[in-house]
Structure formats: structure tokens, C-alpha cells
Design goal:
The complex is a heterotrimer.
Chain A lengths: L1 E8 L4 H15 L3 E6 L9 E9 L13 E4 L2 H7 L8 E5 L13 E5 L1 H8 L5 H13 L4 H7 L9 H29 L7 H7 L4
Parallel strand pairs in A: 1-4, 4-5, 5-6
Antiparallel strand pairs in A: 1-3, 2-3
Helix pairs in contact in A: 1-5, 3-4, 3-6, 4-6, 6-7
Chain B lengths: L4 E3 L8 E6 H12 L3 E4 L6 H14 L2 E4 L3 H13 L4 E5 L1 H17 L3 E9 L5 E5 L4 H6 L8 E3 L4 H18 L2 E7 H5 L1 E6 L6 E3 L34 E3 L13 H16 L2 H4 L2 E4 L6 E6 H16 L4 E6 L1 E3 L3 H8 L4 E6 L4 H10 L5 E5 L8 H12 L1
Parallel strand pairs in B: 3-4, 3-5, 5-6, 6-9, 8-9, 14-15, 14-17, 17-18
Antiparallel strand pairs in B: 1-11, 2-10, 6-7, 8-16, 13-15
Chain C lengths: L31 H15 L6 E5 L7 H4 L3 E4 L5 H11 L4 E7 H7 L1 H9 L5 E6 L2 E2 L5 E2 L23 H8 L3 E6 L3 H12 L5 E6 L3 H7 L5 H11 E3 L16 E8 L5 H13 L11
Parallel strand pairs in C: 1-2, 1-3, 3-4, 4-8, 7-8, 9-10
Antiparallel strand pairs in C: 5-6, 7-10
Classes of the chains: A alpha/beta, B alpha/beta, C alpha/beta.
Chain lengths: 206, 390, 289
Amino acid sequence: MNEIRFSGFGGQGIIRQGLILGKALSLYDNKFATMTQSFGPEARGSACSSQVVVSDERVLYPYVTKPEILVAMSQEAYEKYEPELREGGTLIIDSDLVRLKPSKRKIKIYSIPSTRFAEEIGNRIYANLVMLGFFAAVTKIVSPEAIKKALPGLVPSRYLDMNIKAFDRGFNYGLEVLEKEAQSKVEKEPKAEKKTAKAKNEGMEK
Amino acid sequence: MSVRKKSADPKGVLTGVHYLDGDYAIAEGALAAGCRFFAGYPITPSTETAERFAERIPLVGGVFIQMEDEIASIAALIGASWAGVKSMTVTSGPGFSLMMENIGLACMMEVPIVIANVQRGGPSTGLPTLTGQGDMMQVKWGSHGDYEIIALSPDSPQECFDLTIKAFNLSEMYRVPVFIMTDECVGHMHEKVVIPPAEEIEIIERKWYEGPKDKYLPYQPDVDLVPFMVKAGDGYRFHTTGLTHDQRGYPVINAEAQDWCVRHICDKIRLNADKIIEYKEDETDNAEIVVVSYGITSRVAWKAIQDARKAGIKVGSLRLITVWPFPEKRIEELAGKIKAFVVPEINLGQIKREVERAAKGKAPVYPVSHCGGWVHNPDDILKVIKEAAK
Amino acid sequence: MRPEDRLEKKHPMEEFLRMDRMPHIWCSGCGIGIVVTSFIEALQKSEINPDKVCVVSGIGCTGRVAGYLRLDSFHTTHGRPIPFATGLKLANPDLKVVVFSGDGDIVGIGGNHFIHAARRNMDLVVICVNNFNYAMTGGQVAATSPIGANLSTAPYGNFEYPFNLPYLAEACGATYVARWTCLHIRRLTKSIQEALQKRGFSFIEVITPCVTLYARRNRLGDGLNLLRYYYENSEIRHGADTRTLDIGYQGKIIVGKFVDIEKPTFLDCMNNHLRKVLGNKYQPWGVKS
């Protein structure tokens, strides 16, 4: 079972990320996935979050308690939700919007300038899809095919191509990051070549 | 009496596999069931159902109207139902309170309508955006006087869809308001919802009267106690009232008429309870402890039940699909065989009391209660199961 | 008296009355019966198929009208006949739906529904019998009680401003607004007939005597005295500015037809708008193809 939280500020498409992921997993990746949004006090101000719980069996408790994966697209969201991230969990941030604080926690961190990439594509509103692509690449929780199948109905049809483009941009960047990470491991630990493949999957630990 | 079954009108059925929240699934269930009239007033956390219906109905054929308040909404449903159109509304605590008077009218006039209550924390404005199950007794007793209703409790968006269809079927069958008592968690939770092809959805039609016009009595009980119905505008020139009435629907203000009228609207549900009640049991045969739960809480409780079984405790589950009428016979049977009941719910013991009443002292009932705002942590339920098993 | 012993075996309006419910509960001198008679005559003249006419009442003396009319008739809850009628009408647009109730029901407890139904131009005929008080419960002060009138819950006289109903109806969007007293039988009948034959939100206020409570409490005499008061103090002023129609205690009553305009109804607006926006995908409702 995996608990995933997407977070950021209102207007970034945070809820949409959860919806797309949940739909992709449930309908096209043969998983059980619930998506819930945060309502109430924590939705005040600019913090916004959606939660996806993924499992091979029916999800019984639909809320995130200690997420394995936190995606933070704003400083406030990062500061608010990072403490609940599980030990050994994965933090994914927009590198232009989140400044990491010094921490001794054992968590994996991946970063991508998703908003900047989206602007390069044409509009910052695609940042959520860039991020989702990156998320798919580095976590491997969802197949890119499933996400693409899930998009119709969740993004306006006339912008479907742009959203797919944004997803691919993030996904490819994620693959590059994993590649670099694997290489740096090889360089650092030349004797551990046999472990490369595994390290690639697990990603970089900090 | 023959129940008229047919398959759903494909116009309203969005066949396919969807990723929907409970609120949306209720709207789709209603459309699949043939509901073509929706009157409502926006209220968190139920509004998405109204939004979905408003978006979909112009493509299906029917009416969505946002009324001036919940009182008007339910009054409009009763009117629409008399015109022969399946009607529903959706609301939450404060709106539900406003509907109480006309829920009584619907019971008294014996009108099929469906009302979904996406429960939030109460009383009063309470917790608009957070979950609760505090209206379980209100749905049973909220309007004044004696009457009976049917209430169903879904635990997922899929069940929101399925039970909304069931709600319409029961409502048409028994000429009674039927309630879908869901909650904010299920209402706002997105999950996979499978909508089958129209021909696989069974729809039960209203018991339309077909005899001679001058012989029609709107409140003459049939063999199943449910009177036949006619539509406004079909030339029967019938009368109906919220006053105590006779079989003609004419007001009669005396104790004798009251006894007949009120017993009639109660008995048609009470005496058909075995046919109406649905629950799901799991491993109750050799259970020491039986967890009685409903709605979202039953889903969370299932985790606790599994954990308790791993810890060697013989736990059974009785999940209420129909909360009202209440399966009191089954509870009493179980009470004679088990050590204790555990009843988790998001209120301070409303259904726990009912289990206690039905158990007649044969087994103690352990509540796992809180006031709302969150769903139970399964560990809290597990703790009580362990305590009850001691 | 058994029906067969009656002098005149058939009441001329028997087709429209539930004779098995007679005698009715209204006091002698009450004006509601006159309004019912006017309504039936208007219905007969209008040549509308009576099987398609629904009457919806709320609670109160006038609320009992639905119970005496041999039509599809609905005696609903206090204040709610308008939304009930809205549901009936929208679910089956072929119906002619008439709301027949009192002032307390329609503009007191049901005021919110009244203004919104008028705003939407819901295709309903609303006949509001105004007797200046809550009669069935014993003569309490109403939203229509004139200043100075004595009521059981205003035992020192009413000091609240009353509603001017035609003004309220017009301001909210009603397309037909008239006021008569139950002395103006011929004109009232004509008004009801016009309203029945019109589409849109039609509102007819009928001033009637409440002899037992309002009149007795204020020492105004019996039914005849009140009709004489109407005769002497009412003035027909068709098209009058509805802002000028306030009724003072035993003061002048301006009557007439004040508004008669054409405007698309709620259903017209719904069908037209959605067809425009959605094109052929739209499934019209209540439109004969």
C-alpha cells in the first residue's frame, strides 16, 4: 500500500493531480486507489492538498496518515506536510518554489523546476502535469500509459495535447535524473557495479 | 400484487468504468434509476450531486431546479412525484433539519421520493466540510408523529451509485421517502465506479392503479399494504392531504381515523421489514464479538476486524446496508450467541442504542464513538474489540 | 339531509365540488366560498380540461379549498403550496396548476416561496384570499393586517406595516396582478379566467371578510356590513401604480387589474437557453414536438 500526498497552493491543479493519478491507477493500472481532498481548516490560506491511497486490495482507510510520497509545489505546503512524511519516504519538490530546510531525516528527495518547464511549454498551468510526469518517472507507482489514458475528461479536450506534452516533459526529466543518479552512484562506488540496477530503482538517498 | 420490473432507460445510464466521488455517483445512480426531477439547495458537502445533476439532466431530458431553500426543494419533490416523475434531492445536516416538516408530508401522503443526506458534523452549522454520522436518529424520528421510512448507508462511491438505484426502487415499491445516509468522507472520496449497461439495471416501477376511475381510492391498502397510485392530470380528480385521512384521502379528524391512518403508514414498512432489510454478514457464525457498523465506518472497521482476527479474536461483522428499518431480529439472534457487540459510529452512540434495544440485554454493546470531523482510526476500533473480547 | 331528498338534486357546480364533503367548515359570512364559486365559474368559462387542472392549498381556512374542489387537489403544509405546485408543474408541464390559499400561508410563512416563484415567472395561478388575519388559529396578527386593527396577538392594535401584495407581486416579476374584493364577483371571475388562460406567474388577491374573528374583534359588524364597506370604499382603478395600493384600517381599497404582461416562463427560459447553449444535444422538457 502507498500513501501519496500532493500539495501546493490553490490554482496549481493539486486536486487534479490526485484525480488523474487515482483514475489512472484504478481504471488502467489494475489497482485500488482512493482520492480525497483536504477540506476544513487546513484548506485555509494557500495550502491545498489531495491524497491518494493506492493498494492491491480494497482501500479501507481512505486518508493519508504517514505518506510514503509527498509532492510539494509550494514552500508552505512543504513546511506543513514534510514532518508527516514517513522515514525513508520520498519528497518531490518544485525546485524553484521550495527551498529545503536542513534536515537529518532519511528521506529521498527529487526536485524539478516544474513551473519553469510548464512556462517553457507555454503556460504555467501545466506545471501539475509536468510534476505528475516527473512523479511517474521517479516513483514508478503509475504507468505513463495509464496517466495518458486517464487525462480525457479531466483536462479540457482542446488542451489534451498540451497536457500530454507537459507530462512527457516531466517524465523524461525524471528518467534523466534517475540516469544521472545511477551514474553518480557508479562513480562514487565503482566496486558496486552490480547494484546499479537496484540503485536506479530506489533513487538517490540523502 | 406483482412488482413491475423492467430495465433502466438507457438515456440516463452512463455505462462504463468511472472515477467518481460519492456525490457524483449518487447523481449517476439517480439518473440510471430514471430520476428526472431534482430540486435542491446548495449545501456542503452534498452540493456536487446537484452540480452533476444540473450538468447531466439537459442531455437526458428532465428538470433541475435550484430552489430558494430546502423546504421548497422537498415540497417540489412531492409535487413532482405526484405528477408521476421520479424525484430526488440531496442535502446535509442544516438542510435536512429544514426538510423535516415535508418529510412528514411525504410519509402522510405516501409519496415516493429519494433524499440523500451527505452527513457532516452537527449540531447546527457544525463542521460543514468534515464528516459525521450524527443524523441517523434524525432520519428515523426527525419529523413529528409516528411514521416509518427506509434509510440506506453506502460505504463507497460504488455503493452510492448502487444504493441510489435501490433507494428509488424501494421508494416506488412502498410509496415512502427513502434516504441515502452517506457522509462527507464517502461523498468526497473518489474511487472506481462501475456503471453497468442499462439492461442489467433492474428498475421497479410504481404501482399504478389501472381499475375503473370512479372506484379509485388513493389510500386503499393492497395485499402488501401499499396503496396503488395515480398521476395528477389523469382524470382521477383525487384528493390528498397532510391531515389524518381515510382511504379516499379525505380529512377525518378523530382518534379512530388517526389510528387507522398512522398504523397504515407504519405497518406497510414494519410488516414488510424482512423484505426491505439488507445487511452483510461475515463470519458471524462462530463469532465471540460482532461489529455492527454502517457507511464509511464499516469500511474502516473492516480493517480493525481483520487485525483482530490476526490477533486470534473471533470477530464477525454485521454491516448494515439498510439502517432503517433496523434488523432487530437478527441482532437479537446474535445477542444470544455472542459475548459482545462493538458499534463504531461517528456520533455519540445513536445506533449503539438501537443495537442495545434489539439485543434485549443478552449481550453487552461497546460503543466506539466520536463526535465527527474524522473517520475512526482502525486501531481505536481494534482496541475496543480486544476489550470486549476479554 | 340525504342527497335524494334535496330540493335541487344537482348543484350547478357539482361537477367541480366534492359534494360528499359538504357542508364545508367556513363560517357564515366568510368570503372564501364566494371566491371558490368564482373560481369554478371561471374554470367552466375557460374551457380548460378540468382533468388537467390541479389545485394546491396550504394550511388555514383558505387552505381547505383544495379539499372541496373535485379536481386533482393537494392539501399541503403551511406555506409550501407554491413550491409543491412548482414541482407538479415542472414535472408535468401539461397541467394547469392553481395555488389557492390564504395571506398567512402565501405571504406570511410562505413569503420566500412566493417571491421566488414570481421571480422565476413560474407558470402558476396564485389566488390569495386576504382576510387580514390568521383566522383558523383564532385571529392573530398577519403580514397583511392593517395598522390599528386589533388582533389576538396584537391586543393593543397592530403597529407593524403590512404588505401591499400587488406591489410585492409586481416587484418580484409576476406577469398578471389583480386585486378584488369578494363583492366584485363578476370582475373577480373574469380575472381568474384571464389568469387561467395566461401563461406565467399570475397573482390575484381577493379581500374577504373574516366575520368571526377579524370583524368581531374590531366591531365591524357582520358579513353584510363588510360587503357594504367594500361597496363604499373600493375603487376600481385598472393599471394603477402598484406602489399606491396600501390598505389602511377600514380605508380605501383600490381594486382592478394592475399588471398584464407577457414574459417567457421558467420552462420557456430553461428550454430556450439550454437549446441555444447545447444545440441538438439538449433534450427539451415539456415541449410538444
